[in-house]
Write a structure and sequence with these properties.
By secondary structure, the chain is mainly beta. It has strands at 3-7, 10-13, 18-25, 33-39, 46-51, 57-59, 67-72, 77-82, 91-98, 117-122.
Length: 123
């Protein structure tokens, strides 16, 4: 059974940076894509970045040029470097294993959701 543990969130001022981490236990990390989702209260989780098993990243328009997704297969970890943060980036960030990484409309999370990590960006 796959387990996902996110960390790295916090409170930052607009324009600041954070680096999120997601450690994946269980099988399937190296052969599947990964994605980071963003959720705000009352809204569905929104996929913001994906990375293929081969390391090819794709981004939502809202974060392109500001966020960078990467993965370390030796550590079963996926990262999300978040720069130039905006108040609208506030929310809980989750990661998950994806069978399909592009297009975003076809991406489907395969694992159970972790607890997420809270990111708060003050203006």
């Amino acid at each position: 059974q796959v387990q996902l543990v996110e960390s790295g969130g916090g409170l930052v001022q607009a324009g600041g940076s954070l680096r999120l981490s997601c450690v994946v236990s269980g099988s399937g990390f190296r052969t599947n894509g990964m994605g980071w989702y963003h959720q705000t209260p009352g809204k569905q989780r929104e996929l913001v970045a994906t990375i293929s098993s081969g390391g090819l990243p794709t981004y939502a328009a809202s974060v392109k040029g500001r966020f960078t997704i990467s993965r370390d297969n030796t550590k079963n970890t996926v990262y999300l470097q978040m720069n130039s943060l905006k108040p609208e980036d506030t929310g809980v960030y989750y990661c998950n294993i994806l069978l399909v990484v592009v297009p975003f409309s076809r991406a489907r999370p395969l694992g159970s959701w972790g607890q997420g990590t809270q990111v708060t960006v003050s203006s």
